[in-house]
């Protein structure tokens, strides 16, 4: 079996569970992003496409793109990266004619340098959908499908579909077949990869609240109404949805009278879909709310924010709950504002194993987003990006990032001051009462010093062991350089600068530290090996951590495997 195969097997055994610690980070990124709510944010590769929204005065049709890798907003989102393949002169299929453009909106200035020209030679603005809020924007096969929303004119919401082709950054309004859903606002729309289509759970239409399902086949652009069994959720709007496998979860919303906190699941894996109410285990359930986000991270669903029951004054949340679909159980979070370092071990490591285990909870470090609703949340790898929203009349444009699985740090505790004064006696015959033979070389030691530093040495030198009266001990399985490094640590409380440069030497020293019960030395080795964890080394280091009972290093390796993509591991 090759090492990459071993790594892949190790990856498959890593449980996909939320970390016990998470961390909020305020990006504090400047720029010209609008203060909006009820916009959409769609992850395309490592970029977040933010479209539309309402700023308290008008709707927007601007497109803003955030690069998650560079942590910055792109200056011209409509600029095609590969200019050779970007031509506005070649129209996409079924595109609305350019003379139906929305001249009253705000984003055409971004396209000035790339405008196509009419037969008369006059420049024409490319087609962009009308400004809106409360719409959806769903990624499917490299295209973003914008459905419905509130345009701010007329009694009903929009009933249109627009497609942004990401490869060319061109919009089109396609001609669809079948019977469309009708006006949609504050609805949800999720792409089902196994069904090759987008399922819409309709919210409001401008006059009433609805709960009907519609399906758009992205290959034929045909609308249909799925055959569904079971009892559907009651009519609502401003709810949220999340897809886990073939199960679509619907939570909360507003039914025209009150905010909700019920949870339903739509099973879409069978030919006939089925609605059912989720029977939640435990007493913990989030407060009723609307306008929250419901985001999947490693098969767990993260609920953040939203507006609460009171209307005057407005009540918003900034709490975080995690729902486990397998356990059908909610987990809450505990906020710690002043903790600066995530450690690999928790209080449970020191608990009595016979105690009843406490209810699990997640500690969230840092000051996260303020109270809000109408925001968006997008997941890239293990991080959640929360953007904008509003709290009453206050409109926001900040972005926070929640690292749901922050890299653990190995801890190193302080050594005794006495050790720092004993260095000159290391491997010195002066006052020595014991010597060790390692790889044919003699190394001098002092029983009192070794016993104070190591419980293993203290046991060896105690009555009942033959080493107690011996003046020489042969260590056949110990490398000389490793033993000298360990002895130097016992006398000085630290290691020489080069002692942990080699991974093999660090692993050998880790084993020796475990054998001689030197916890602080083990921590130093764990810290050094943490920096050496990589694709080529993680399996070997993890095996060493298991053999040496190095809990921190094991967690570090598991974190690396959990956050490394399987295709990379197998390439």
TrEMBL record:
Asked whether the UniProt record includes Manganese among its keywords, one would answer no
Q: Where is the BTB domain?
A: 432-499
In which domain of life is the source organism classified? Eukaryota
| Stored Pfam families | BTB (PF00651), Kelch_1 (PF01344), Kelch_KLHDC2_KLHL20_DRC7 (PF24681)
Q: Which InterPro entries match?
A: BTB/POZ_dom, Kelch-typ_b-propeller, Kelch_1, SKP1/BTB/POZ_sf
The ranges of region (Disordered) come to 79-107, 114-133
Task: Tell me yes or no: is Transport among this UniProt entry's keywords.
Answer: no
Q: Give residue spans, biased composition: Low complexity.
A: 114-125
Q: Which UniProt keywords apply?
A: Kelch repeat, Repeat
Protein name (database record): BTB domain-containing protein
**Species whose genome carries this gene:** Saprolegnia diclina (strain VS20)
Q: Write the lineage as a comma-separated list.
A: Eukaryota, Sar, Stramenopiles, Oomycota, Saprolegniomycetes
């Amino acid at each position: 079996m090759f090492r990459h195969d071993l790594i892949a097997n190790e990856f498959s055994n890593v449980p996909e569970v939320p970390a016990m610690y998470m961390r909020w980070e305020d990006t504090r990124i400047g720029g010209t992003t609008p203060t909006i709510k009820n916009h959409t944010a769609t992850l395309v590769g490592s970029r977040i496409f933010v479209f539309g929204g309402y700023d308290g005065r008008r709707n927007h049709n601007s497109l803003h793109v955030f690069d998650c890798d560079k942590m910055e907003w792109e200056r011209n989102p409509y600029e095609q990266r590969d200019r050779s393949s970007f031509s506005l002169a070649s129209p996409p299929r079924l595109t609305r004619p350019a003379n139906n453009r929305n001249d009253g909106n705000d984003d055409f200035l971004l396209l000035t340098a790339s405008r196509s020209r009419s037969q008369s030679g006059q420049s024409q603005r490319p087609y962009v959908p009308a400004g809106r809020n409360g719409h959806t924007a769903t990624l499917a096969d490299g295209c973003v499908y914008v459905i419905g929303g509130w345009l701010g004119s007329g009694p009903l919401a929009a009933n249109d579909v627009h497609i942004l082709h990401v490869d060319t950054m061109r919009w089109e309004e396609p001609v669809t077949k079948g019977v469309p859903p009708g006006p949609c606002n504050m609805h949800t729309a999720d792409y089902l990869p196994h069904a090759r289509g987008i399922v819409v759970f309709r919210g409001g239409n401008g006059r009433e609240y609805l709960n009907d399902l519609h399906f758009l086949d992205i290959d034929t652009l045909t609308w249909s109404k799925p055959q569904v069994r079971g009892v559907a959720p009651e009519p609502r709007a401003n709810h949220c949805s999340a897809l886990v496998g073939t199960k679509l979860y619907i939570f909360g919303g507003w039914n025209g009278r009150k905010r909700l906190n019920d949870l339903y699941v739509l099973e879409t894996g069978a030919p006939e879909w089925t609605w059912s109410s989720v029977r939640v285990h435990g007493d913990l359930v989030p407060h009723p709310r609307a306008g929250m986000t419901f985001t999947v991270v490693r098969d767990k669903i993260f609920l953040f924010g939203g507006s609460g029951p009171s209307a005057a004054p407005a009540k918003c949340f900034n709490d975080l709950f995690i729902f486990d679909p397998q356990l059908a159980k909610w987990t809450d979070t505990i906020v710690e504002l002043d903790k600066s370092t995530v450690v690999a071990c928790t209080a449970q490591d020191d608990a009595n194993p016979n105690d009843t285990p406490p209810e699990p909870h997640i500690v969230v470090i840092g000051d996260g987003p303020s109270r809000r609703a109408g925001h968006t949340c997008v997941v890239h790898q293990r991080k959640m990006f929360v953007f904008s929203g509003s709290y009453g009349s206050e409109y926001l444009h900040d972005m926070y990032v929640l690292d749901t699985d922050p890299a653990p740090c190995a801890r190193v505790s302080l050594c005794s001051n006495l050790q720092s004064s004993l260095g000159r006696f290391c491997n010195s015959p002066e006052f020595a009462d014991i010597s060790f033979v390692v790889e044919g070389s003699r190394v001098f030691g002092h029983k009192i010093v070794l016993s104070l530093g190591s419980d293993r040495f203290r046991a060896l030198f105690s009555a009942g062991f033959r080493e107690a009266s011996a003046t020489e001990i042969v260590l056949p399985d110990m490398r000389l350089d490793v033993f000298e490094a360990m002895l130097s640590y016992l006398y000085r409380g630290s290691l020489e600068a080069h002692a942990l440069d080699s991974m093999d030497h660090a692993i050998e020293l880790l084993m020796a530290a475990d054998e001689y019960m030197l916890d602080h030395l083990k921590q130093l080795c764990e810290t050094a090996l943490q920096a050496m964890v990589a694709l080529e080394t993680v399996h070997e280091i993890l095996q060493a951590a298991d053999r040496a009972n190095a809990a921190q290093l094991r967690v570090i390796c598991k974190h690396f495997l959990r956050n490394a993509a399987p295709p990379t591991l197998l390439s």
